[in-house]
């Protein structure tokens, strides 16, 4: 059941080992922890200590962002003049948290403020003139965009014509011409000197309120730094900034790592009733109180439910989750979002099934270009998730488009090697609208342009993606010895949290271990694996891998790729491996290749050395026949050959003789045996067969088999 075509395993001995040993000695950490710190850019003990001990003083000066001075001037003027301010945001988690941060902050300054988030279905992403006209008509004189706006040149000009100024805060790729706004704050501006360009939209919003707060503290005659002006901002808003940063899959390094580290601690003891309710309702233990929140909790529990509001309903409901101070309302909204998320999951699975059927029918898996699928009935708010799943499954860029009349809205995902926004830009003449990130983007297109769009995007993918780009590669941090996999080591990995993009969960490789046990758990959906190496037994779990579909069995020698975690059961803690992939050990593969070579010689009329012992006896045929008849019980069955050979009754045959028995039984008509090649199971090539035993009461005449007669003749020569 190997998932990856290649494993990238660093050598055990490296030139920088002296520096790693120094980090381990200075910080009193285990060598493997020191290795991980070094590989994450910490070249000295001082840098490693700073990486592990995250402090609020590490925030960069917000005034280094281009136009931040102008943005502060305009916001402060609006506060002073009691102008009506509207926050215009996006409907994903990043946008929703950005709106909430700025709204709560401005409310705390007694601002006249409201917010507007467009409907994903009715309006789509970004600013639109109808909404701007409505807002101007309500008397708003300042619009602040969050997580959007940097490409809205025409819309912002329209707002100005109605007497409404705009301050843009965004983090998306900047166009060649920026909007003519009161300020455009974006760390990706070409003229930016800000030291960290990878902030999420909520991160840029957090920097805006930091800059405004700095100015307000200075107005009171205080030194903002001496007054620790960042502390109350972190106490009040960094949890929302962390949530949006993780959900938007931003790299967790530099300032993002600081935001997320501080924010996750706040989320674990959240003072927001809605957040607490959402965590408690989905914690799985039914208990109230604090819930430990990690990046995974955000990614798999909070973010999908908050996103679901904008995908199926309206994102304003998610904002209300963050704004409410009522326990009852928080519980009500949290329950609504969970129910909306269940509906999202149902629709997602339906679309996924349809997409897979379309791929199977066409036979095109995107391996020579990319996957572009369309429908008239898919929900626009869900197709992006399905695109992500298709890209992960087939490791190729994908775009799903849903049409309403002649206009289609699409969402796509890419793989490293092809920038999806640049690819869409090459087809900009065919599109009504597009935008996004390197690996995720959206678009609008007229139906008449779809065939040419598909042709050109496929050509772009063929041109820009190499064969190696399309390979599924598992990047491992280190090859380890069994003795390193201790509880102390598992606990030290907490020093590296929070994990995410650019700081992934460490992955390790243990080579040439023996599987001693495979046990189904979780109702058979998962497996517990026991490995033995160097006299040590290691407990592992393999999520999403049922025992029946794992093409390994007890006794196999394997290499295992895994995360190292802490398992707590009945008050006791133990180190536990979380399997990511398994493959046969290198010497097993080489031996098997030799066996395949011998088998080819046996059935290919080559000369057969006597020591090969390739001629089965009648008792050998009987043993195989009885075993297969018992296993299939008159039905067709799918089996891994090496698992059958693990049976003590069949093991003495060896691989070559076993394959000869199968061929002879098939030739005599009492066994149907075909290798599985349709992708219905994942196995080593040629090692999985479908069998059906043909019942017979007659004694089988082996001399009817040309294979058997040829083998006897050659061995007699």
What does this structure look like?
- There is one protein chain.
- The chain has 717 residues and is an alpha/beta fold.
- It has a five-stranded parallel beta sheet with strand order 3-2-4-5-6, sandwiched between helices. A five-stranded mixed beta sheet has the order 7-8-9-11-10.
- Helix 18 (487-492) links the parallel strand 13 (478-479) and strand 14.
- It is 42% helix and 19% strand.
Secondary-structure topology with pairs:
Blueprint: E1 6-8, H1 17-27, H2 31-39, H3 45-52, H4 68-80, E2 84-88, H5 93-108, E3 112-116, H6 129-137, E4 142-146, H7 153-161, E5 165-169, E6 183-185, H8 201-219, H9 230-247, H10 254-268, H11 273-281, H12 295-312, H13 316-323, H14 327-362, E7 371-375, H15 383-394, E8 398-404, E9 407-413, H16 420-425, E10 431-436, E11 440-446, H17 450-464, E12 473-475, E13 478-479, H18 487-492, E14 508-521, E15 526-533, E16 536-542, E17 557-569, E18 572-584, H19 586-603, H20 618-632, E19 637-640, H21 641-645, H22 654-667, E20 671-675, E21 688-693, H23 706-716
Parallel strand pairs: 1-12, 2-3, 2-4, 4-5, 5-6, 7-8, 13-14, 16-18
Antiparallel strand pairs: 8-9, 9-11, 10-11, 14-15, 14-17, 15-16, 17-18, 19-21, 20-21
């Amino acid at each position: 059941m190997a998932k990856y075509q290649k494993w990238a395993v660093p050598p055990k001995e490296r030139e920088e080992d002296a520096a790693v040993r120094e980090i381990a000695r200075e910080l009193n950490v285990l060598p493997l922890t020191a290795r991980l710190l070094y590989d994450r850019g910490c070249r000295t003990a001082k840098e490693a200590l700073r990486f592990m001990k995250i402090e609020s003083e590490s925030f960069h000066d917000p005034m280094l962002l281009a136009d931040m001075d102008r943005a502060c001037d305009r916001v402060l003027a609006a506060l002073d003049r009691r102008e009506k301010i509207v926050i215009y945001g996006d409907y994903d988690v990043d946008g929703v948290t950005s709106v909430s941060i700025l709204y709560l902050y401005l409310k705390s300054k007694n601002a006249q403020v409201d917010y507007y988030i467009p409907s994903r279905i009715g309006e789509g992403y970004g600013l639109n003139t109808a909404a701007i006209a409505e807002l101007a008509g309500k008397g708003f004189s300042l619009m602040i965009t969050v997580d959007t706006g940097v490409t809205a040149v025409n819309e912002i000009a329209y707002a100005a014509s109605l007497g409404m100024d705009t301050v843009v805060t965004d983090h998306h790729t900047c166009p060649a011409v920026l909007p003519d706004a009161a300020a455009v704050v974006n760390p990706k501006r070409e003229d930016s000197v800000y030291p960290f360009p990878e902030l999420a939209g909520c991160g840029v919003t957090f920097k805006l309120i930091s800059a405004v707060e700095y100015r307000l503290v200075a107005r009171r005659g205080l030194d903002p730094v001496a007054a620790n002006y960042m502390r109350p901002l972190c106490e009040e808003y960094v949890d929302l900034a962390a949530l949006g940063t993780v959900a938007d899959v931003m790299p967790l390094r530099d300032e993002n790592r600081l935001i997320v580290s501080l924010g996750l601690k706040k989320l674990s003891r959240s003072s927001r009733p809605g957040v607490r309710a959402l965590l408690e309702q989905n914690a799985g233990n039914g208990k109230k109180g604090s819930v430990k929140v990690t990046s995974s909790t955000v990614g798999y529990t909070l973010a999908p439910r908050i996103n679901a509001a904008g995908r199926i309903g309206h994102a304003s409901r998610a904002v209300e989750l963050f704004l409410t101070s009522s326990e009852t309302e928080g519980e009500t909204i949290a329950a609504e979002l969970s129910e909306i998320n269940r509906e999202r999951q149902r629709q997602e699975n339906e679309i996924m099934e349809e997409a897979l059927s379309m791929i199977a029918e066409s036979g095109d898996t995107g391996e020579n270009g990319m996957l572009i699928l369309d429908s008239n009935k898919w929900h626009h708010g869900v197709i992006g998730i399905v695109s992500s799943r298709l890209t992960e499954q087939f490791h190729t860029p994908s775009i799903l488009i849903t049409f309403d009349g002649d206009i289609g809205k699409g969402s796509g995902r890419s793989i490293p090697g092809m920038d999806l926004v640049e690819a869409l830009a090459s087809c900009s003449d065919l599109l009504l609208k597009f935008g996004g990130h390197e690996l995720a983007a959206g678009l609008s297109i007229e139906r008449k342009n779809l065939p040419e769009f598909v042709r050109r995007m496929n050509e772009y993918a063929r041109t820009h993606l190499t064969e190696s780009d399309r390979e599924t590669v598992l990047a491992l941090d280190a090859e380890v010895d069994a003795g390193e996999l201790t509880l102390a080591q598992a606990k030290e990995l907490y020093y590296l949290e929070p994990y995410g993009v650019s700081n992934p969960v460490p992955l390790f490789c243990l080579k040439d271990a023996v599987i001693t046990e495979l046990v189904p758990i979780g109702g058979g959906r998962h497996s517990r694996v026991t490995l033995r190496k160097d006299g040590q037994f290691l407990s592992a779990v393999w999520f999403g891998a049922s025992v029946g579909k794992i093409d390994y069995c007890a006794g196999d020698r394997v290499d295992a790729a895994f995360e190292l975690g802490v398992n707590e059961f009945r008050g006791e803690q133990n180190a536990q491996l979380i399997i990511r992939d398994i493959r046969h050990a290198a010497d097993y593969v080489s031996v098997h290749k030799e066996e395949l070579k011998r088998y080819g010689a046996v059935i290919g009329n080559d000369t057969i050395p006597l020591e090969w012992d390739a001629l089965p006896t009648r008792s050998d045929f009987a043993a195989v026949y009885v075993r297969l008849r018992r296993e299939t019980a008159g039905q067709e069955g799918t089996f891994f050959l090496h698992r059958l050979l693990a049976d003590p009754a069949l093991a003495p045959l060896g691989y070559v003789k076993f394959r000869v028995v199968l061929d002879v039984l098939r030739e005599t008509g009492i066994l149907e045996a075909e290798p599985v090649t349709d992708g219905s199971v994942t196995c080593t090539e040629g090692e999985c067969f479908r069998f059906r035993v043909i019942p017979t009461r007659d004694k089988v005449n082996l001399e009817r088999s040309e294979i058997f007669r040829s083998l006897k003749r050659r061995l007699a020569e």
